[in-house]
Design goal:
This protein is α/β, with parallel strands linked by helices. Strand 11 and strand 12 form a beta hairpin. Bound molecules: cytidine-5'-triphosphate and cytidine-5'-monophosphate.
Length: 381
């Protein structure tokens, strides 16, 4: 940025429910379109009115969005429809949204005003991740997300989809598979090595469905030193000690979820369950932290923190937050009917809008899109 130039403020807004790396990737792209990123987060009341009840409450969502590394400022209780007054109030020339569509409860595009004023820009929506999909994994207790690289499991997944009401699936947010790439990791990572003399903190865990309890923990642990390394256990390891269909997010997804937060300097992708002497020496770890949640023993019955304890480099830190991943799953299960209705309504509303915008039905079930191209009706693009 030229130091004489006024910084360019950029506006984003949304629900940011169960804040995930798709949201973080939208904020990353938006930040790169200007200098200073302001994010408006809707209240629980607004979301309930337009979409159905959120899974994370507003205090949780405000805190989590604020902690994403590309966010400079948040605005609580932002209006659902983005207006020119809002952009002007915060000195933002334009707002940025993913290339999907957001509709009010009456089916109105929430960005129609800023689009008409030419103060709207689009970034690419991250395919294969959405709150709706995560809720689905929890309700259906599926495990295919653990084996996404595996052709057999992909076939199983496709077969399981047969019979689903494809017509109701949203063309924007109906999920396809997330394809993790090294470029995405580079985009999310700070890429910075520790500076000489930095005190290195190491924590390990599942960090599944990254929530405010985990955020409070990493914030607290980061205060124990200068450079925080988060070791993520592989899916099979997590499944051994958490059971059921945990983790809900696979390792690739958890890597990006954790890297999106300000306090994290580095991530170990598939860390050993027990903190080994080799790991401690390799990263020159000064202190290993764990929260006050119970520690499961390793498969041979040993304490995974035996080595840091032996070296006098282990510390229990209290996040001051008792929320766990299974509490989040419990919220979904308790509100199962509400979420199913919410998801079905949202998908249908988007499907109808897509048909209205892009498709004019004509004879023989052939479609003419509004750019003139001809094809068969698209299902789940
Ligand atoms: N977004 C994105 N990629 C995703 C999910 C969301 O780029 N995989 C973007 C949206 O396009 C929007 C912003 O994140 O610009 C906030 O989205 P939000 O209002 O929270 O709604 P969605 O996440 O799209 O809702 P859902 O997950 O329920 O489909
Ligand atoms: O359960 P998981 O392996 O994801 O936990 C990762 C770390 O976060 C652990 O050290 C755990 O004790 C800590 N944690 C916490 N407070 C919470 C949830 C998790 O300190 N509410």
């Amino acid at each position: 940025m030229n130091s004489n130039k006024k910084p360019l403020n950029v506006w984003c807004d949304g629900c940011y429910d169960m804040v995930h790396f798709g949201h973080a990737n939208q904020l990353r792209q938006a930040k790169h379109m200007g200098d200073y990123l302001i994010v408006g987060v809707h209240s629980d009341e607004e979301i309930t009115k337009h979409k159905g009840p959120p899974v994370f409450n507003e205090e949780e969502r405000y805190k989590m969005v604020k902690a994403i590394k590309w966010v400079d400022e948040i605005v609580e209780n932002a209006p659902y429809i983005t207006t020119l007054e809002t952009l002007n109030k915060y000195g933002c020339q334009f707002c940025v949204h993913g290339d999907d569509i957001t509709l009010t409860s009456d089916g109105v595009d929430t960005y129609h005003i800023v689009k008409a004023a030419n103060r709207y820009k689009e970034c690419s929506r991250t395919q294969g991740i959405s709150t709706t999909d995560l809720v689905g994994r929890m309700l259906l207790l599926t495990k295919t997300h653990h084996e996404r690289d595996d052709e057999i499991s992909l076939h199983k997944e496709n077969t399981n989809n047969i019979g689903k009401d494809k017509q109701a699936q949203s063309p924007w947010t109906g999920t396809s598979q997330f394809l993790p790439t090294t470029r995405k990791i580079i985009q999310f990572s700070s890429g910075k090595a520790p500076k000489p003399g930095d005190r290195i903190v190491y924590v390990a865990g599942a960090f599944d469905l990254f929530h405010v309890g985990l955020l409070d923990f990493i914030e607290r642990a980061s205060k124990e030193g200068d450079y925080l390394i988060v070791g993520l256990h592989a899916d099979k390891v997590v499944n051994r000690y958490k059971g059921c269909n945990y983790p809900i997010m696979n390792l690739h997804e958890r890597v990006l979820s954790v890297l999106a937060y300000k306090y994290v300097s580095e991530v170990v992708i598939g860390a050993p369950y027990s903190v080994t002497p080799e790991l401690m020496d390799h990263f020159a770890v000064d202190i290993v932290c764990h929260g006050v949640t119970p520690v499961s023993l390793d498969f041979d019955g040993s304490d995974p923190y035996a080595e840091p304890k032996r070296r006098g480099k282990f510390k229990l830190v209290d996040s001051g937050n008792t929320l766990t991943t299974s509490d989040i799953v419990q919220r979904i299960i308790t509100n199962r009917v509400n979420f199913e209705v919410r998801n079905a309504k949202k998908e249908k509303k988007e499907r109808d809008m897509y048909d209205k915008l892009y498709l004019q039905p004509c004879k023989n079930n052939i479609i003419i899109s509004n750019n003139g191209s001809i094809g068969i009706p698209p299902v789940n693009q």
